[in-house]
Write a structure and sequence with these properties.
The chain is an alpha/beta fold. Helix content is 52%, strand content 12%. The strands form 3 sheets. It has a 5-stranded parallel β-sheet with strand order 1-5-4-2-3. It has a 5-stranded parallel β-sheet with strand order 7-8-6-11-12, sandwiched between helices.
Length: 349
């Protein structure tokens, strides 16, 4: 490969490291998975140079910008890249594959590393991700794990993955458990674009000749939208349904959502969002159970009157394979039960 080549996304795996030289705020919004952020201009510097360029003097802006870029590139080489071997192959990108990535790649090549830039930069990358998200799902064969709230669908995916099965854990990627109470404490969801990037990265690594296990999902996981073609493909796929006794699900959910026990006001605020569906009397009963610390009664009540009916309606309406799927009956939600269920699923594949 010629060291000055601008490469495409299809060549991503040829490089030892991907370097995003955009500002930290650009990087936080979305980036190539596993890329490292080495900004040649931070957010404040980029804003200052841009303002000078537009409002005063492009020439002065270029002088100041060049000095800042040179200083920052030198710092990155000293702090991050100084120990890289001569054979190290970095790929550099910025917003459009222009001056910022070109400056970094030029210096790296002058040192002797065969650095390349991503053709079209992040903007081209984003277009390609969107395009591939509309194509990759059609190449894969999904098996959808269905089951009422608290059945341990995500735990079953974990057990399947531990046994070498192909798994697409959308809730893990979305950092959300997929319900009105599903946000994770101190773990915010990624941006929509970052979610898309991580889903794309997982899909592109899957083997089309083997099944892919995935949990039945709604159109949105928390605030994030599933890629449309992926959702359509999942909804047309074969299903397997978990069946677990209500008592076991209640114990499991109290364990999983234990952070709400320490934040009753937050829990009541979440429950208030259901007032339009169930009315003040029902939500008032749930609120009273929170105030009294009647957690088993509350969780059972929520399962019987909200989650289970809503899940049945949604799954039957949206997943064509859910009407009469094979059943996996788990007497309890233990590591042993999930392991046995995963072994049973894989034995028939």
């Amino acid at each position: 490969m010629r060291p000055t080549t601008a490469v495409t996304l299809a060549q991503l795996s040829e490089f030892d490291e991907v370097i995003d030289v955009r500002s930290p705020s650009e990087f936080a919004l979305d980036h190539v998975p596993e890329a490292v952020n080495c900004p040649v201009l931070d957010d404040a510097e980029r804003a200052s140079v841009g303002t000078l360029y537009k409002q005063s003097s492009p020439f002065d802006a270029k002088k100041i910008g060049a000095a800042l870029v040179s200083k920052n590139i030198a710092r990155h080489i000293e702090d991050r890249f100084r120990d890289r071997a001569r054979e190290w192959r970095p790929l550099v990108y910025c917003w459009r594959g222009g001056k910022r990535s070109g400056a970094m790649a030029h210096v790296l090549r002058e040192i002797g590393w065969p650095a390349a830039t991503l053709e079209g930069g992040y903007r081209a990358y984003r277009r390609e991700v969107v395009r591939q998200l509309a194509e990759l799902p059609a190449r894969l064969r999904f098996e959808v794990i269905c089951g009422a709230t608290g059945s341990g669908k995500s735990r079953l995916l974990e057990a399947l993955a531990a046994r070498g099965a192909q798994v697409l854990d959308l809730e893990g990627i979305a950092r959300h458990r997929g319900s009105v109470l599903g946000d994770l404490p101190d773990d915010p969801q990624p941006s929509q674009k970052m979610f898309d990037s991580r889903v794309w990265d997982r899909l592109r690594r899957l083997d089309p000749s083997r099944p892919v296990f995935v949990e039945a999902e709604s159109r949105k996981i928390g605030q994030l939208q599933l890629p449309e073609v992926l959702l359509e493909r999942m909804r047309a796929s074969a299903c397997v349904r978990l069946e677990v006794p209500v008592e076991a699900r209640v114990r499991f959910l109290i364990e999983q959502y234990g952070h709400f026990l320490d934040e009753p006001a937050h829990l009541k605020a979440k429950l208030a969002c259901l007032r339009n569906l169930y009315g003040s009397e029902v939500v008032g009963r749930w609120t009273a159970q929170v105030d009294a610390g009647e957690w088993r009664a509350l969780v059972t009540d929520l399962l019987v009157h909200h989650y289970d009916p809503a899940y049945r309606r949604s799954t039957l309406r949206n997943y064509s394979g859910s009407a009469d799927p094979p059943l996996l009956r788990l007497p309890e939600l233990s590591a042993r039960s999930f392991g046995e269920a995963a072994d049973g699923l894989l034995a028939n594949r």
